Amino acid sequence: MSELYAVRRMQLRDRCAATGSAAALISRPANVRYLTGCAPSGAALLLGPAVDVLLCGRPLSGDPAEGRPAEDVRVSVLPTRGGDPVVAGADLAAKAGADTLAVEEHHLTVTRHRALSQVAPRLRLTDLACAVEAQRLVKDDEEISCLRIAAEIADQALGELLESILVGRTERHLALELERRLVDHGADGPAFPTSVATGQNAGRPGHLPTDRRVEEGDFLSVCLGANYRGYRCEIGRTFVIGTTPADWQIELYDLVFAAQRAGREALAPGVECREVDRVTRYVLDAAGYGEGLGPWTGHGVGLEIDEDPQLSPAAMGKLDACVPVTVEPGVHLPGRGGVRIDDTLVVRPEADGGPELLTITTKELLAL
């Protein structure tokens, strides 16, 4: 793995050199982890012409969720508690003789940017922009392997929940149980706050669990994900509780399922991101649900749960092979509930079998 991180840093170093910067300072946590294998809270990576230094405000904890730094990265713990690793990185670059330093302006506060100028006034700061994010877009085999494991963990946690008694339990209780099961099966933690929605809450995007109890005849929608070695997946399913689904529930579910299938089948290298959104949205819009739809159909996943590319009407660019994305359409009917179906897939060419489905829990409308 150290060799892999070294290659990533070399690619970034070459990009910086091409723009006239001999050094770069990386502060966005996901980018620090991508380049070093480790992202302690508040840490910064100084990418120098000769040596790469991970600056930390405190000693490494050894927590698996924090990661482990590559062997060829020097770890430097600030001597003063409360010091800023980003500011220390700029100072170190100036003392090493750098005259230009590329920084992630989109991640720096105005206060922090001002502090960099004060500690190293002769250092010219340039904007690295989203160079690392662009580098992270296409995943390598190791990254996709981590996503597969994260998806397996999420599938296991959800599958076990479906085998338990659900009626009478609260949304909040079920969400906490799912997050515990994720950790029990090897996750570093949840990829994002788990959403459990029942009854009139079902199908609502981003719903935060409440003390509402599961009742017979409810729609139950669940959205969860596992964080495994920093990589995050997402799965969402909708079920009916304790009885044969009503006609309106079957019709709504079949509609959302058809939309989700259209989006999944559209995933291929070279396809415009907004086209995936268009074909998914069309199915729901044609049935009269266009006004209530969310701003996007899906998004990229990786070291963050919401990465590029965005699958939305205004999205620019085309899909590449080996890019993991979600396809997650849903419909919420105020006062009645709704349906959401969400999968994580990896874009693959048709010659390789088409999109690879990572989250495999059944999408059949089950009565639990």
Automatic annotation (TrEMBL):
This is Peptidase. It comes from the Bacteria. InterPro entries: Creatin/AminoP/Spt16_N, Creatinase/aminopeptidase-like, Creatinase_N, Pept_M24, Peptidase_M24B. Residues 146-348 form the Peptidase M24 domain. Residues 8-138 form the Creatinase N-terminal domain.
